[in-house]
Structure formats: structure tokens, C-alpha cells
Amino acid sequence: MNQAAQQTQMIAQQLRTNAVHDERILAALGRVPRIGFVPPGLRNVDCADAPLPLAHGKHMLSPLLAGQILQALVPRAGERVLEIGTGSGYLTACLAALGAEVHSLEIHADLAERARANLQAAGLAAAQLLCADAMEWQAPAPFDCIVLTASLPAWQARFGQMLAPGGRLFAVVGTGVLMSARLYARSGDGQILPRNLFETWLEPLENAPVPETFRF
């Protein structure tokens, strides 16, 4: 089966059957060559329904989770999007394919360099990548959408403050085997309103504070 057919099957069997139905999102996922973002030794399983390992203990999002994130955020053409955790650049590419103005932070310079090359090869080099620690970085302007591709042990208000009024933020919050995927929305009066979406697991964001556990 050729790569295009594999991606078509991936979308049909992994995303459509799991309630990812937004045709605009599915079309963007179909346009981005997933194999070009997978480490060379794993390209025979590029469309597998699983996260794929990257350097530094990071993982490339599974196709389903990438689709769920995009469907939750509904990024629109021209919107300013901040991605925290570039990884391989795959979700970055999907956001750019939807017409968003993408700014992506990656704490590891080697991952950022590899992601730039992947995006260049896919013809999506317009995304702006920056090597930075998200827990220290200061946003120069608010964003319409923010997505964290690593989990937060506890919600960090600093990310909500980076949202423009009406903005949306996707984050996975928690410390257990099952964490809560949430969509945060910023209202016109500045309130950050969370909504639980589903349960999943992601490795924690580096340098994010971990709440102290209760001890007797």
C-alpha cells in the first residue's frame, strides 16, 4: 500500500471512527505527509495508532490525538497559534496546513533543528520555530489558539494569560495514568473557562511545577 493510501486508511479507521469528523481538519491531516515527520527507523509504522518515540524521552502524537486536538481548537486561517512542544513538527505542519500563523516553542535545540528540516521538506517552512523554555518565555502578543503537546501536572495560569479574548487553549492536566484533556476558553471579560474533553496521557512539560503530594 502506498503512503497516500495508508494515510487515507489512517483517517478512516483511526479518526472518523473515533468522532473526529470535521472535514477541514481531516483534509489538513490528509495533506500533511506524516511519514516525513517520523524518525527514519520508524517510518514503517508512521501511521500506527500510537505515539512514536523521539529524542529526550519525547513522543510524536498519535494520529488520533493530533486530530482530537485540532478538532477541539478549530484553528482558523490567519489566526495566531502558539504550539508549546514542537517535537517532530507534525502538529506544527497540520496547524500551518489549516492556514494558521504558527509560532512553536521547543526546549531542545536538536529537535527544533530536525523539525525545521521536516517542515521545509513538506513545504510548510513558514511556521516560526523558537528554541525556548515555555515556563520562562514571554509572549510578545496574545494568541488566538494555544496547544501544549506535553502535560501540566497542575494548571499554569501564565498560559491562559497569553490568550486573546475569545481564544482557545488545549492542555492535558494531571499526574496519574489517566490525565484530563481540557479546552480552556478566554471570555471577553478575561475569565479562563475550562471544559473537560476526554482522558489521555502525555509526558510532563519540562520545568512545569509539580504539586506537592499530601503526606501524613
Task: Explain what the structure shows.
With 216 residues, the chain is an alpha/beta fold. It has one domain (3-200): Rossmann fold. It contains six helices and nine strands, in the order ααββαβαβαββαβββ. The strands form two sheets. A seven-stranded mixed beta sheet has the order 5-4-3-6-7-8-9. Helix 1 packs across helix 3. The protein starts with a helix and ends in a 16-residue tail after the last strand. The model has no long low-confidence stretch (mean pLDDT 95).
Quick tags:
single chain; 216 residues; alpha/beta; Rossmann fold; seven-stranded mixed beta sheet; two-stranded antiparallel ribbon; 6 helices; 27% helix; globular
Describe, in short, the structure shown:
By secondary structure, the protein is α/β, with parallel strands linked by helices.
